[in-house]
């Protein structure tokens, strides 16, 4: 049922927590997990500003995802890592629908009403527009 | 360059480029006007600049998809020149800026950007943000609560509208709404019209009306030099950001030349100097733009809007523009650097803060960058000038080995001789340089001095473990050749 799982991450605590659920789910159904990390314009600007060259930017992003990649390495599961650029919500939706995953697992930042009004909730957007079931991990 | 690549850069993304170009043009208008007001010139000077730079860069830039125009960083550098000498000198300085930038491009100075450390770049954007913010404070002096309310409304629309639609830039909607409120409510507040004239016509070719003398050159040269440096620093930073966002490469030297050409053309067409814009470039890429066409469309739409809507533009209240500038300053500031201030090495924080303080004190981003680079060079020299000398045991009452570790150069060798003990009753000293590197004649000089002091006590000095480069240097300068090779 959940053979191909897409795990959307941003390197935050929430995404590490959601990685645990994704791996467990994939194990249960003997499936695979793919990771998607979307770098938005603001993050791209910050990463470029704080690094001297391209290699350093790549290294920094890898480090951000390292706890999650370590968990996947331990689980002996096949996985791919996709680093994309753009608006996280739409990018995740497009990627998930195009490659027809069975389930998208995503962490929720746990914003309050005011924060989600101003910042917007990526997990809501994904849940609304992705064709497959979505697991939002709080 | 082959035809296929040109075709790809121009027509590889026609629909995306046209749409994003329109979005960028709409977002550019308020900024171009506000930056003109910062520089102290008529709004048309900034609008002509954004039009002509966007247009020229579309053809000669090295980074397709990047947006250039009149910018805050450049405007802030011009304030004194305009105040003391007027617009014509600014136009001449803009042309000279372009010439200097082309020279930088020919000399391939884009490579030099790697000598500008991160902490200086972070200091640069933070100082820029602070200066854009403080430049707006003058518009609040002696104003009523209405002004504050309008600024607050502008900011509210800018930050909340994207939650509902991203089709139209929220800055434009904010400007339109606030302008409409002021016109309909017949509210008496300062407007763009109070700051200068909007002429509804295309820019024309003009040679700046200045005396072509040495004196003129000496007036504009320092400004042009600062403008050239700041323009390239911001343009190359922006190019790196667009590279990352689009996952493509760009030609930095071509971009330097392109910025130069754009500034020369702009100076002749009555525009102020400009460079690449981080915010607008991010908007462009986010809106789907990635090709040269996007910059061309942005320039053409911007100019068409001004020609059609000039009468409305003069009625934009200053409060709305101040709101837009506050947003620009908030998004320019690198907020993560505050969080990192305690985490990163102390020297990095010191360089960043020094860059900011010097910019704020001199009102000149170029001086801040140079001072920051210099300070980080000194910190670097201090860091690598730590030399360790380990003293070995005396062997058979006549031979002793010293091991030197580190980089031997002018800054590191001054107290090197004091790390040796010359009073041993031995006949031979061996200096192991396996872990050391000789860089300059000061290093050779220091070794000479040590050798001479040992010689006074009839101790012979031998060197071992010299690496090839150090050997070459020693041979060339030759001071200690008598001891080498034994």
From TrEMBL, chain B:
<protein>
    <submittedName>
        <fullName>SulP family inorganic anion transporter</fullName>
    </submittedName>
</protein>
<dbReference type="InterPro" id="IPR018045">
    <property type="entry name" value="S04_transporter_CS"/>
</dbReference>
<dbReference type="InterPro" id="IPR036513">
    <property type="entry name" value="STAS_dom_sf"/>
</dbReference>
<keyword id="KW-1133">Transmembrane helix</keyword>
<keyword id="KW-0812">Transmembrane</keyword>
<dbReference type="Pfam" id="PF00916">
    <property type="entry name" value="Sulfate_transp"/>
</dbReference>
<dbReference type="InterPro" id="IPR052706">
    <property type="entry name" value="Membrane-Transporter-like"/>
</dbReference>
<feature type="transmembrane region" description="Helical">
    <location>
        <begin position="145"/>
        <end position="161"/>
    </location>
</feature>
<feature type="transmembrane region" description="Helical">
    <location>
        <begin position="260"/>
        <end position="283"/>
    </location>
</feature>
<dbReference type="InterPro" id="IPR011547">
    <property type="entry name" value="SLC26A/SulP_dom"/>
</dbReference>
<dbReference type="GO" id="GO:0016020">
    <property type="term" value="C:membrane"/>
</dbReference>
<feature type="transmembrane region" description="Helical">
    <location>
        <begin position="319"/>
        <end position="338"/>
    </location>
</feature>
<feature type="transmembrane region" description="Helical">
    <location>
        <begin position="119"/>
        <end position="139"/>
    </location>
</feature>
<feature type="transmembrane region" description="Helical">
    <location>
        <begin position="173"/>
        <end position="198"/>
    </location>
</feature>
<feature type="transmembrane region" description="Helical">
    <location>
        <begin position="86"/>
        <end position="107"/>
    </location>
</feature>
<feature type="transmembrane region" description="Helical">
    <location>
        <begin position="295"/>
        <end position="314"/>
    </location>
</feature>
<feature type="transmembrane region" description="Helical">
    <location>
        <begin position="45"/>
        <end position="66"/>
    </location>
</feature>
<feature type="domain" description="SLC26A/SulP transporter">
    <location>
        <begin position="152"/>
        <end position="355"/>
    </location>
</feature>
<feature type="transmembrane region" description="Helical">
    <location>
        <begin position="218"/>
        <end position="239"/>
    </location>
</feature>
<feature type="transmembrane region" description="Helical">
    <location>
        <begin position="18"/>
        <end position="38"/>
    </location>
</feature>
<dbReference type="GO" id="GO:0008271">
    <property type="term" value="F:secondary active sulfate transmembrane transporter activity"/>
</dbReference>
<feature type="domain" description="SLC26A/SulP transporter">
    <location>
        <begin position="15"/>
        <end position="143"/>
    </location>
</feature>
<keyword id="KW-0472">Membrane</keyword>
<feature type="transmembrane region" description="Helical">
    <location>
        <begin position="350"/>
        <end position="380"/>
    </location>
</feature>
């Amino acid at each position: 049922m959940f053979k191909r799982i897409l795990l959307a991450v941003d390197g935050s605590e929430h995404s590490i927590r959601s990685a645990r659920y994704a791996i467990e789910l994939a194990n249960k159904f003997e499936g695979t997990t793919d990771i998607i990390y979307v770098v938005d314009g603001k993050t791209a600007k910050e990463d470029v500003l704080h690094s001297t060259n391209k290699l350093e930017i790549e290294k920094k992003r890898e480090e951000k995802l390292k706890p999650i990649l370590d968990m996947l390495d331990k689980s002996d599961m096949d996985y791919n890592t996709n680093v994309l650029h753009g608006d996280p919500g739409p990018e995740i939706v497009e990627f998930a629908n195009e490659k027809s995953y069975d389930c998208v697992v995503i962490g929720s930042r746990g914003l309050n009403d005011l924060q989600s009004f101003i910042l917007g909730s990526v997990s809501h957007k994904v849940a609304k527009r992705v064709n497959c079931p979505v697991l939002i991990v709080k | 360059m082959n035809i296929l690549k040109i075709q790809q850069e121009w027509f590889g993304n026609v629909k995306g480029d046209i749409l994003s170009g329109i979005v960028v043009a709409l977002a550019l208008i308020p900024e171009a006007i506000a930056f003109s007001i910062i520089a102290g010139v008529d709004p048309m000077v900034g609008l002509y600049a954004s039009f002509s730079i966007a247009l020229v860069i579309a053809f000669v830039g090295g980074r397709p998809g990047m947006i250039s125009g009149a910018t805050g960083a450049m405007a802030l550098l011009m304030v004194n020149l305009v105040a003391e000498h007027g617009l014509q000198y600014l136009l001449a300085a803009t042309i000279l800026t372009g010439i200097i930038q082309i020279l930088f491009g020919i000399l391939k100075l884009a490579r030099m950007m790697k000598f500008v450390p991160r902490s200086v770049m972070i200091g640069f954007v933070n100082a820029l943000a602070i200066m854009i913010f403080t430049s707006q404070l003058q518009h609040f002096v002696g104003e009523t609560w209405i002004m504050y309310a309008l600024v607050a409304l502008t900011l509210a629309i800018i930050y909340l509208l994207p939650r509902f639609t991203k089709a139209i830039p929220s800055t434009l909607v904010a400007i339109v709404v606030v302008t409409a409120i002021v016109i309909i409510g017949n509210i008496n507040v300062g407007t763009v019209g109070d700051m200068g004239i909007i002429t509804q016509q295309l820019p024309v070719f003009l040679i700046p009306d200045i005396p072509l003398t040495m004196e003129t050159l000496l007036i504009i040269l320092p400004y042009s030099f600062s403008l050239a440096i700041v323009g390239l620093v911001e343009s190359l930073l922006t190019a790196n950001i667009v590279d990352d966002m689009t996952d493509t490469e760009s030609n930095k030297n071509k971009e330097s030349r392109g910025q130069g050409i754009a500034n020369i053309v702009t100076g002749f067409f009555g525009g102020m100097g400009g460079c690449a814009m981080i915010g607008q470039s991010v908007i462009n890429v986010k809106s789907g733009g990635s090709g040269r066409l996007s910059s061309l469309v942005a320039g053409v739409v911007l100019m068409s809007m001004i020609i059609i809507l000039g009468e409305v533009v003069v009625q934009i209240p200053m409060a709305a523009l101040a709101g837009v500038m506050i947003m620009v300053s908030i998004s320019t500031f690198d907020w993560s650097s505050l969080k990192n201030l305690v985490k990163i090495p102390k020297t990095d924080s010191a360089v960043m803060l020094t860059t900011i303080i010097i910019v704020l004190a001199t009102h000149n981003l170029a001086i801040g960058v140079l001072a920051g680079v210099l300070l980080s060079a000194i910190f670097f020299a201090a860091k690598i000038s730590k030399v360790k000398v380990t003293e070995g045991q005396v062997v058979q009452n006549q031979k002793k080995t010293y091991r030197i570790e580190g980089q031997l150069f002018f800054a590191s060798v001054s107290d090197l001789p004091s790390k040796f003990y010359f009073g041993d009753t031995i006949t031979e000293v061996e200096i192991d340089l396996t872990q050391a590197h000789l860089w300059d004649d000061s290093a050779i000089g220091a070794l000479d001095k040590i050798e001479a002091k040992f010689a006074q006590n009839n101790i012979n000095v031998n060197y071992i473990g010299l690496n090839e480069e150090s050997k070459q240097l020693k041979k060339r300068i030759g001071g200690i050749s008598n001891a080498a090779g034994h």
